[in-house]
Amino acid sequence: MFKFYRQCFKVAFAHSWNWAMDIASTILGVLVPLVIHYARPSEQGERKLNDLYWQIPVGGFGALFLFKLIRAPYLVWRNEEEKKKNAENQRDELQKQLDDRKPKLSAEICYVTISEADGDGGSVIPVIVATVLIRNTGTPSIADNFSLNLQTPDGEVFEGRIEVIKDGTKIPDDDGSRRDSPGVILNSSDTIFNKTLTPIPNGGKVIGYLRASFPLINRKLVQQTGNTFTTSFQDVYGKSHSASLMFGELKPTPVSRAPRHQGERI
After folding, report:
1. Domain boundaries, the chain
2. Cα-based distances in Å from 59 to 14, 15, 20, 24, 66
3. What whole-number distance in Å separates Cα of residue 194 and Cα of residue 162?
4. Distance CA 175, CA 130 (A)
5. Does 61 have pLDDT greater than 60?
6. Mean pLDDT to the nearest integer, 99-104
7. What is the CATH number assigned to the segment(s) 105-258?
8. What is the pLDDT of residue 156?
9. How far apart are CA 200 and CA 81, in angstroms?
10. Which residue has the higher pLDDT, 17 or 99?
11. Which of 1, 132, 167, 255 gets the most CB atoms within 10 Å of its CB?
12. Is 219 exposed, middle or buried (0-12, 13-18, 19+ CB in 10 A)?
């Protein structure tokens, strides 16, 4: 509280002093010499004029100080608000500079294929292989800590078990609905998290495969129309990114048959 009162007196004094000196210098510096020169006052009148040299500044200062003291709380608040606004602008500018120096990754699940793998005791486990594309419009960054989950239309979520793609792994060349699909042969180097161990440059993009098994559900449930597949990963700063695709909503041409684009890391 004492600090606030001190600021009020300081603001009132500074504003009043400057105004009083300006008024005094104008009146006393211009009008009084003119009066003395043209009116030629008596000795007594000249003494009164000389008294004005200190009466006008003191009186003006006192009147202005009282007025400014009444307005001082508002002036102090306005000054604090201006400081706060300037600090916020500087913070926003600094945050923008920091954001410009960070990676800006965006992802897309281009395609999903469904197959099966042998489980324990002769069981069959559905396996999903998602074709994932990652773009970077910021500073170079890796992408890691990948996950893949399935959400059914009624909201139930199943976490997939991420698996490394072994050399010579065959996946269907379509969404997995055709049992006689000729298939595509993948190698370990085709796995998305192996490709993104090398930082993705600014303006670059990477296409790779993410394989996950779902031992808790059957293939029929996995292939249900309306299921949403979501992959998540992190950039070099630990920021999370994700992409989703609804099964049956979109069936683009598989990457194995799609044209290659210059600059893609296939």
Report:
1. 2-100, 105-258
2. 16, 15, 9, 10, 11
3. 13
4. 10
5. no
6. 82
7. 2.60.40
8. 93
9. 44
10. 99
11. 132
12. middle
Instruction: State the burial class of residue 262 (Cβ atoms within 10 Å of its Cβ: 0-12, 13-18, 19+).
Output: exposed
Return d(Cα 191, Cα 194) in angstroms, integer.
Answer: 5
Torsion region of 42: left, alpha or beta (phi above 0 gives left; psi -120 to 50 gives alpha)? beta
Query: What long-range pairs does 26-29 form, CB within 8 A, spacing at least 24?
Result: 27/56, 28/52, 28/53, 28/56, 28/57
Higher-pLDDT residue of 60 and 105 is: 105
* CB contact at 8 A, 151 and 157: yes
Residue 205 in this model has a pLDDT that exceeds 80? yes
What is the CA angle 29-30-31, rounded to 5?
115
What band does 254 get if pLDDT is binned at 50, 70 and 90? very low
Question: Who's near 115: CB < 8 A, 6+ residues apart?
Answer: 126, 127, 129, 171, 172, 176
CA angle (262, 265, 266) in 5-degree steps: 100
pTM (predicted TM-score): 0.60
pLDDT for res 42: 56
Please give the DSSP secondary-structure letter assigned to residue 141. B
Query: For residue range 40-56, what is the model confidence (pLDDT) as tens digits?
Result: 555 565 565 555 555 55
Packing angle, helices 43-100 and 2-26, rounded to 10: 130
- Tokens 């170079």 belong to 140
User: What are the residue ranges of helices labelled H in 27-42?
Assistant: 32-39
Measured CA to CA, the distance from residue 106 to residue 108 in angstroms comes to 7
For range 74-84, the mean pLDDT? 77
Residue whose entry in the numeric block shows the structure tokens 């993104």: 196
- Asked if 215 contacts 161 with a C-beta cutoff of 8 angstroms, the reply is yes
Is the pLDDT higher at 266 or at 71? 71
